[in-house]
Amino acid sequence: MDFLKQSLSLLLSCCLVLATAPEGFAAQADQSAAPPQVQAAPPVQASQQTPEQLQQLVAPIALYPDALVAQILAAATYPDQIVEADRWLQQHTDLKGEQLGQEVDKQPWDPSVKALAEFPSVLANMDKNLSWTSSLGDAYVNQQQDVMNAVQVMRDRAEKAGNLKSTSQEKVSKKAKTIVIEPADPQVVYVPEYDPWLVYGAPIGIWPGWYSYPGLYVAGPGIAFGLGFGIGFFGGYGWGWHHWGYDWHHHGIIYNHNTYISHSRIFVNRNNFNRGGFHGTGGFHGAGGFHGGGARGLAGGQHGFAAPHGQSGTHSGAFSGFNHGGVARGFSSRGHSSFGGGFHGGGGFHGGGGGHGGGGHR
Predict the structure, then answer these.
(1) Using the 8-state DSSP alphabet, how is residue 44 labeled?
(2) How far apart are CA 167 and CA 157, in angstroms?
(3) Burial of 191 (0-12, 13-18, 19+ CB in 10 A)
(4) 3-state secondary structure at position 192
(5) Higher pLDDT, 231 or 320
(6) What's CA 274's distance to the chain center, in Å?
(7) CB 170 within 8 A of CB 180
(8) What is the largest CA-CA distance in the chain?
(9) Helix, strand, coil shares of the chain as percentages rounded to 5?
(10) How far apart are the first and last CA of the chain?
(11) pLDDT tens-digit series, residues 30-55
(12) DSSP labels for 180-225?
C-alpha cells in the first residue's frame, strides 16, 4: 500500500511539472528574445571656436569689400563646388567677358560660387587653401554671428593700425560701430592685397597650412591694390555682384534683397543634434552627399578621392566622415588640414610635411 501511494505521488508530481513547463519555457524564451537594454548616447557637444581662432580664420578676407565677404562665406559652405569651379576656369581660359558669364550661368553651382567666377584669383586662393576654406564654411554654419563679429574686430584693428582707410579703389565708412567697405566705383571691384598676419598691427599667428596666393598677398604691413575687376559683363545675371551684400545688424548675408540660405549638405549644424541625426537651421541640411553637380569635379579619382556617401551622425569638422579607400578622413578639424592646405596643381595634393601630389604647382 505504501508503495502504491509513493508511485501515485510521483505520478502526480510529474504531471504537475509537465503542466507548468510550457509557461516556464515560454518565459525563458521571451526573456532571451527581449532586446538588450541600450543606454542612450549622450548628446554631442558642439565644438565652438574661440573668438581668437575665428579672428585668425577671417583675417585673410576681413578687409575685402562687404559683398565679396558675403560671397566668400556663402561659397565656403560649398568647398566641393569651389574645387570644381576653379578647375573649370583653368580649363576654359579662352572664355572672356560676356561669353564667360554665359557659360558660368549654365553651371550647376550655387550662386555664390558662380559669383566668385568674377574674381578668379579669389576662387583659386580658396581652392589652393581648401582646408582653410572648409574651416571657414564650417564656422559660418555653426557660428555665423561670431564669424561676422570677428570680421568687424579685425577691421577695427586694421583701422587703428592705420592700414584701413578710404582710397581711390574702395570706400571705408562707419555706421554706428560697424565698419563698411565698398568699391569706390560701383562698376569696378578691387580686391585688396595684404599680409593677413601683419596688416592688423600686432602680428597674429598664421593659419595652419595656409599658403599665400599671387595677386592677393603682399609682404609687409600695408595694403596694396592691383588691377580692378570690371563687373559689367556679369551684371545681368541673378548671381552677379550687385545681388550680394551683408546685413551687419542681423549678421546675415543678403542675396537678391533676401537673407541668403545655403542648401549645402557638406556641413552640419552641430547646435541642432538629436538621435535621428542633424537638422540644419537657416537652410543648412544634415550630412549627406555633395550638393548639385559638385561631386563630379571630385569623383573619378582625379583629385585623389571618390565622391562621398552621406553619413548621418557626423559631427566633426568639414568634410568629416570621409574615409573612402583610406584617402581622407576630413579636410579640417579645428582648422588643421589633412593635406597641409589643400590642392596644388592639376589634381595632386601638397602635403604639409610630405611630398607633392601627382600634379604640379599652379
Answers:
(1) P
(2) 18
(3) buried
(4) strand
(5) 231
(6) 21
(7) no
(8) 126
(9) 35, 15, 50
(10) 109
(11) 444 444 443 443 333 446 899 999 99
(12) EEEESBTTEEPPEEE-TTTTTSS--PPPTT----TTT--SSSSEEE
The whole-angstrom separation of Cα 343 and Cα 338 is 11
Instruction: Please report, for residues 125, 188, 191, 199, 240, the alpha-carbon distance to residue 226 in angstroms, rounded to integers and kept in the order given.
Output: 16, 12, 8, 17, 21
* pLDDT tens digits, one per residue of 283-338: 433 333 333 333 333 433 333 333 333 333 333 333 433 322 222 234 433 333 33
Residue position matching grid coordinates 583610406: 326
| Residue from 195, 265, 190 nearest 229 by CA | 190
Measuring CA to CA, which residue among 273, 237, 248 is closest to residue 113? 237
Instruction: In whole angstroms, give the CA distance from residue 236 to residue 98.
Output: 10
Q: Pick the closest to residue 189 from 243, 138, 276, 118 (CA basis).
A: 118
Taking 80 as the threshold, does the pLDDT of residue 348 lie above it?
A: no
Banded model confidence at residue 272, pLDDT cuts 50, 70, 90:
low
pLDDT of residue 262: 86
Give one DSSP letter per residue of 260-293, joined into a string: -----SS---TTSEETTEE--STT---S-S--TT
What's the CA gap between 200 and 222, in Å, rounded?
A: 9
Beta bridge partners of 193: 224
Amino acid of residue 303: H
Q: Are 130 and 338 in contact (CB under 8 A)?
A: no
Three-class DSSP category at 26:
helix
Tell me whether residue 351 is exposed, middle or buried, using C-beta atoms within 10 angstroms of its C-beta: 0 to 12, 13 to 18, 19 or more.
middle
**Among 247, 315, 245, 255, CA closest to 280:** 315
What is d(CA 322, CA 223) in angstroms, rounded to the nearest whole number? 39
Going from the C-alpha of 296 to that of each of 55, 84, 106, 300, the distances in angstroms are: 33, 8, 15, 8
Q: What is the pLDDT of residue 63?
A: 97
- 344 near 360, Cβ under 8 Å? yes
Is the separation of the CB atoms in 127 and 83 below 8 Å?
yes
Whether the Cβ atoms of residue 302 and residue 327 lie closer than 8 Å to each other: no
Strand blocks (E) in 65-222: 170-175, 178-183, 188-189, 192-194
pTM of the model: 0.67
- The candidate with the shortest Cα–Cα distance to 337, out of 352, 316, 349, is 352
Res 10: pLDDT: 53
